[in-house]
Structure formats: C-alpha cells, structure tokens
Design brief:
The chain has 296 residues and is an alpha/beta fold. The chain contains 11 helices and 11 strands.
C-alpha cells in the first residue's frame, strides 16, 4: 500500500504542475513537497517525474501513480458521501430468518421496496445455524432466530413468539384426534418437520408417538410455500410455525388443531453488538417487529 499522505502530495503536484503552488495548496513548504516526492519514488522504486528546469513531466510510472491518486480521492469522496448521507430508501439491506417467517415478512417489505427504487432488500430463508454464522461474519444486517444466541458479539431483542401448529384441512378442525387418527392421515414432511414432530407430537402423545423416523408419510416438500398445499386439498397433515400457516395463500382451507399441550417458539431479532445500524436497517427492524406482532 502506498503511503496515503505522500500519494496525496504527489497527486496535488501533478494537478498544479508546480512545486510552489502544490506547497501553497497543501499548506506545506516546497522542500516538504520535494521530500514527499522522494519518499514516494523510493517506495515505488522508480522515478515519477522528469525535471525540465523549473517544470517537469510525468514518467510512465508517474502517470500510473497519478491515476491511482485520483482514483483514491474518488473512492474516499464516495465513502464520505455514503457516511454523511444515510438514506433510509437507498442502498442494500440483508435479512435472514426461517422460511416460515420469511413468508410472513416479505409481503410486509414489498410496499417499502415499491416506494424506494434505490433500495435493495435481500431476504434469505435459512437454517438457524446459517443465520447465526452470517450475522457473526457480517453477511446479514439483521437476523431472526428462535432463541437468544447469548453470544458476546451479538445482541438480541425478544420480539414475540409463535405457536408450533398441527395443520389439518379446514373441515377437520373439530374432529377428535388420537395419534392413530393422525398417523392414518399421513405426514407431509419437510426439512424442519421431523424436529417439529419430536417437539409437539411427543409432548401430546407420549405413550403412542414412535419418533419422527417412524411416522407414516404421505409426501414431502422442501419449498416452504408449498408445504400446506396438499393438506389444503385434504391430503395428510403437517406441522408448521404459525407464520407459515398465516402466510399460506389459501389459509382458509386449513385449520390449526388445538392439542391439549401447546408449544411456542420465541422470536429474537439479532444484530452485531455495537454496530451502528443504517437508516434502512433500522426501518427494516421496525418492519420485522411489526410482522412479529401480527402473530397470534
């Protein structure tokens, strides 16, 4: 890396074309300008100017270093402009959450995106471990996790909780349901479904539940928006957080069967500790909190 002060002195010298004028602009002495030039030439390992009396011309190396100096100035100006102009409606924001919560959150983000053409919202549905890793690495500005990570480099805010739901067709809402009845319908599996089954079904059917690996399957889906679709058509049952049910396009065709023992999952909004959020990230945080507050 070229020393920034020497590079700026050289860039000013090239612009003015004169040692005295460069010294005046930089509030330096003329020998000071000459000293910076010599040090920069030593760092580059080549002469940067060719003297012709009191004037000079740039060597090929000098022309390349001058171009670099101008480029560095432009980069620094862009950086200062970005820092000084914290526009809520411009620039990127990166958010990560579960697939079910993403279905609920994304429609809430769309009005803001439509009204702000210079805004770029990146919403990633990801497993909890990936969200945690992305927050620590700085890939995500905000993440929604199911538990407080209790990590010294992260801070977490509890924004609500959502129920883990047994999802059935709408016409089955009031039907008595033993585990045998449920198993006869068959399970619509998905990547998180087996863990949900061990959580909710074991709690409510401790004597009959055989474990997720022994459930009778009717099908499996890995697209979060399609998991309730077969259930809506009367095929099987599934297990989803409340957000996945409420975001389904045909929610009226589903019912949430109330088991005797209910299970709730917390929602935690997580960000890097001590990080000053941009205006757009702060607004995204408000939208996330509002979406979480809609869950029953």
């Amino acid at each position: 890396m070229l020393y920034a002060t020497w590079l700026e002195t050289f860039t000013t010298l090239c612009e003015t074309g004169h040692f005295t004028r460069a010294a005046a602009r930089l509030n330096m002495t003329q020998p000071g300008v000459s000293q910076h030039l010599r040090k920069l030439e030593q760092q580059v390992g080549q002469a940067l100017i060719s003297r012709q009396g009191k004037s000079f011309t740039l060597t090929p190396a000098g022309e390349a270093v001058f171009a670099l100096g101008l480029s560095r100035r432009a980069e620094e100006k862009r950086l200062r402009d970005d820092i000084e102009t914290d526009d809520r409606d411009a620039g990127p924001v990166h958010i990560a959450c579960s697939g079910s919560f993403a279905m609920l959150l994304y429609p809430a983000l769309l009005p803001w995106m439509r009204a702000a053409p210079d805004l770029s919202v990146h919403l990633k549905a990801a497993p909890q471990a990936e969200i945690l890793a992305g927050l620590l690495e700085g890939r995500f500005d905000l993440g929604v996790l199911g538990a407080d990570p209790c990590h010294m480099r992260l801070e977490a805010i509890h924004i609500g909780r959502e129920e883990l739901c047994l999802v059935l067709p709408a016409d089955a809402a009031d039907t008595p349901m033993s585990f045998a009845d449920l198993d006869a319908r068959g399970f619509i599996a998905h990547p998180d479904g087996y863990g949900y089954a061990d959580d909710l079904l074991r709690l409510n059917f401790p004597d009959d539940y055989p474990g997720a690996d022994r459930l009778r399957l009717r099908g499996s889906v890995n697209q979060i928006g399609q998991i309730p679709a077969p259930v809506a058509k009367g095929v099987g049952y599934t297990l989803l957080p409340r957000s996945g049910v409420e975001a389904f396009v045909n929610e009226a065709s589903l019912s949430v069967f109330q088991l005797p023992k209910r299970r709730w999952h917390d929602l935690w909004l997580v960000m890097r500790r001590g990080r000053c959020l941009s205006a757009r990230a702060r607004h995204a945080r408000d939208i996330i909190e509002e979406a979480a507050g809609q869950l029953r």
